[in-house]
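Internal ticket - ligand job 328, PBG:
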Amino acid sequence: MGHFPATRMRRLRQSDWSRRLVQEETLSVNDLIWSVVVSDTADPVEPIVAMPGVERLSLKALTKAAKEAESLGIPAMAIFPHIDPAKKDANGSEAFNPDGLVPQAIKTIKDAAPNVGVICDVALDPFTTHGHDGVLDGERIINDETVACLVQQALMQAEAGCDVIAPSDMMDGRIGAIREALEGDGFQNTLILSYAAKYASAFYGPYREAIGSATALKGDKKTYQMNPANHAEALREVELDIAEGADMVMVKPGMPYLDIVKSLADHFAVPVFAFQVSGEYAMIEAAAANGWIDGERAMLESLTAFKRAGASGIVTYYAPRAAKVLGA
Ligand code: PBG
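stdout (structure tokens):
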């Protein structure tokens, strides 16, 4: 270790060229996954009150977005559906409908932008009347019965052309069950991105408005999503999911959980992604709208922080905006 004055840390910071030369991490468009909310009632788009600047997209609007993603060089899009309440039921059976909104959205992106990767959430919450990610027995979310549904949902998505199956439901054993079913049905090349460390978080609030499950949700998700106070448990979750066949893992939410991103990146030789969730987006946008922070700088700083923590990439509602700034 050096000592002052022989060592002056500010020497390297004194000019733009030297700061650029010693910069450790660089955020690029290749790090971005664009999370999009699709809806069969939007015409062509519908605002989401708690997420200014983000809209629910009709399939027509999704075509345009997919082309934009491709031209900006965004590698992949993640689809989240807003389902017509009339199609929801207690078991979320619309989740397996091969003619449903999600398979249509997959095909829409693939037709518009064949080089953009398509990622789909596996979980029942957009499709259930009660807003939970699984099937209920009384008040309890029943694990193994839910896994059987998730397998069906994942196979339908793979069949529709989805590249990456991303289970976000936090049921035990679902990665292994989905991997086995994919192998058995000839989908050896379908990737699995497991939401392995997903916390029961207040930061999902605006998303639940976005997909229309906010008013539906009874209770909370603490019996399946992780306790925000836990760290070691995230390592166990990831170890299991890798053993069961996950190609990549996700930490969610993002910014309040950078320590988890860092730990996972240090411990496992598997790509780790972070999800900058709806509440994180809403906080930055709300403060920026009030003139309390510089929104664009906060966006870039938050995304760069994920890279510094060791993330291979970030799922973010900011993807197109960040890509434009980065490409400029
Ligand atoms: C649920 C799911 C959630 C999000 C994505 N998939 C929320 C939840 O668990 O209730 C949140 C995304 C966001 O907040 O941006 N399967």
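Auto-summary: The CA atoms of residues 76 and 116 lie 5 Å apart. The pocket of PBG is lined by residues 121, 123, 125, 133, 168-169, 204, 207-208, 221, 277-278 (CB under 6 Å).
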